[in-house]
Amino acid sequence: RKIEIDLREAIQGDMLRPYYQPLVDLSTGRITGFEALVRWPHPERGMISPAEFIPVAEETGLINALGGQMLHRACTDAARWPDDVRVAVNLSPLQFRTGNLLSLVMEALKQSGLPARRLELEITETLLLEKSSQVLATLHALRALGVRISMDDFGTGYSSLSYLRSFPFDKIKIDQSFVRDLGTNREAQAIVRAIISLGAGLGVTITAEGVETESELSCLRAEGCQEGQGFLFSRARPNAEIVGLLQAQS
Ligand code: G
Ligand code: G
Ligand code: MN
Ligand code: NA
Predict the structure, then answer these.
(1) Confidence class of residue 212 from pLDDT cuts 50, 70 and 90?
(2) How far is the CA of 53 from the centre of ligand 4 (A)?
(3) What is the pLDDT of residues 148-206, one digit of tens each?
(4) Angle made by CA atoms 177, 95, 23, in degrees to the nearest 5
(5) What CA–CA distance (Å, rounded) separates 151 from 172?
(6) What tens digit of pLDDT does each residue of 8-20 get?
(7) Are 193 and 175 in contact (CB under 8 A)?
(8) Phi, psi of 229 (to 5 degrees)
(9) Which end of the chain is less crowded, N or C, counting CB atoms within 10 A of the terminal residue's CB?
(10) What number of other Cβ atoms are within 10 A of residue 86's Cβ?
(11) Is the CB of 50 under 6 A from ligand 1?
C-alpha cells in the first residue's frame, strides 16, 4: 500500500513531529503540561491526521519505530520547557508486546535529561483487557522510575473497573464523547460526575478531554474536575510556539 510505503519512508527520514496540546489546571487556568500528538507533513497530501496513519502503523509494526521517535523527541523538547511543565506521550498496546519499552523510556529520559516526574505515559483500556502480568510488571517498573501513568479515553472500549484495583494510575482522562454531551445529556453528566468522584476516592487526577465551550468548562469546574484539555484552550501546536505560549501566561 502507498500509505505504508510513504509512512516507512517518513519514519526513516525522521519526518514525523509531535505537536503539543495544553493540559490546563481548571482551578488556576494555568498550563500544567502538554500532550504530544504526532503529525505527518506529507509532501503531496499536506498534514495527515494520526487517526489515518496510527492504525496503519499498528497493523504493520511501524508503531514501534514511530513511538520510539515520538518519545525521544517529546522528552528532548520538554527538557527545554520550564521545570514544572510535564509532557504526556501516547503509547500503543503493541509497544508493550514487541518493543523493550522500559529501556526505551530510560534511554529517552537519559538522553534528553528530562526528569522522570515530568513524563506522563498515556495508555488505553485495551492494553489491560488481557490482564497480562508482563504488562502490569512493565507499568509498575515505569512507575518506579517516577514516570506517571495515565488512563486515556476512559469510559470507551471495554471499561472494567477491576483494573483500577490492580494498577494505581496517576491520572484518568475522561473521553471527549462524555464531555461533548455534558450540556444536553443527563446520562453523560451523571457519568462525568461519577468518574470525578471515583478519581477523588482513588486519589487520581481527573482530566476532561475535548473541552470546546465555556459551558462545558463551567460544568466541569462545578463538578470539581481538576484538569482540562481541548480546543477551548488551544489546539496542538508545534514546539516552536510552546515557550512563547508559556511566557504569555507567566
Ligand atoms: O491528534 P489527534 O488528532 O488527531 O490524534 C488522533 C489519535 O491518534 C488519538 O487517538 C491519539 O491518541 C493518537 N495519537 C496521536 N499521537 C500518537 C502517538 O505518538 N502514538 C500513538 N500510539 N498514538 C497517537
Ligand atoms: O485519543 P487521544 O485522547 O490521545 O486523542 C486526542 C485527540 O483529540 C486528538 O485527535 C486531538 O486532536 C483531539 N482533540 C483535542 N481537543 C479536542 C477538542 O476540543 N475537540 C475535538 N473534537 N477533538 C479534540
Ligand atoms: Mn491521548
Ligand atoms: Na483520549
Answers:
(1) very high
(2) 16
(3) 999 999 988 776 788 888 888 999 999 999 999 888 889 999 999 999 999 999 999 99
(4) 40
(5) 5
(6) 999 999 999 999 9
(7) no
(8) -150, 140
(9) C
(10) 19
(11) yes
Buried residues in 227-237 as b, exposed as e (16+ CB within 10 A): bbbbeebbebb
**Residues 170, 120 contacting (CB under 8 angstroms):** yes
Write down the residue that cell numbers 505504508 correspond to: 4
Nearest ligand for residue 21 CA: 2
| Other CB atoms within 10 Å distance of the CB of residue 11 | 19
Determine the atom of ligand 1 nearest the C-alpha atom of 58.
Answer: 22
**Index of the ligand 2 atom closest to the CA of residue 50:** 10
Indicate which atom in ligand 2 lies nearest the CA of residue 236. Answer: 12
Structure-block grid coordinates of residue 113: 535529561
User: What is the mean predicted confidence (pLDDT) over 204-227?
Assistant: 96
CA of 52 to the centre of ligand 4 (A): 16
Contact 215, 232 (CB under 8 A): no
pLDDT digits (tens, 9 = 90+) for 75-114: 999 999 999 999 999 999 999 987 699 999 999 999 999 9
